[in-house]
Amino acid sequence: MKPVLWYHPVSQRVRYDGAGLGRSWIPLYRKHEWVELTAEEINAIYVQHHNQFGECISGDWGYERDIEAKLKEKNNAG
Fold it and tell me: Are 25 and 34 in contact (CB under 8 A)?
């Protein structure tokens, strides 16, 4: 995600263009709203990792890590 503004804490100035600014300028980012997984997305990951009896078939952390990866993808936290 790219900064939308730069702020200088000493002068309290704000710039919209970060080109050529020194290290004392602080990049500011747009607030990002959290995007959750839908029930269908959670169910699809669950089915992929569990057998018909609900027992995990893909290892200790596969299910949890796939949910984490999907959330990062949807929230662009890559």
Answer: no
SS3 36: coil
32, 75 Cβ separation under 8 angstroms: yes
pTM of the model: 0.50
Report the distance separating Cα 39 and Cα 78, nearest Å.
22
Residue 35 tokens, joined: 């995007």
Domain ranges of the chain: 1-31, 39-75
Model confidence pLDDT, tens digit, residues 31-41: 778 889 999 99
Tokens representing 14 are 């704000």
Residues in CB range of 2: below 8 A, 6 or more apart: 29
| Distance between CA atoms of residues 48 and 10, nearest Å | 54
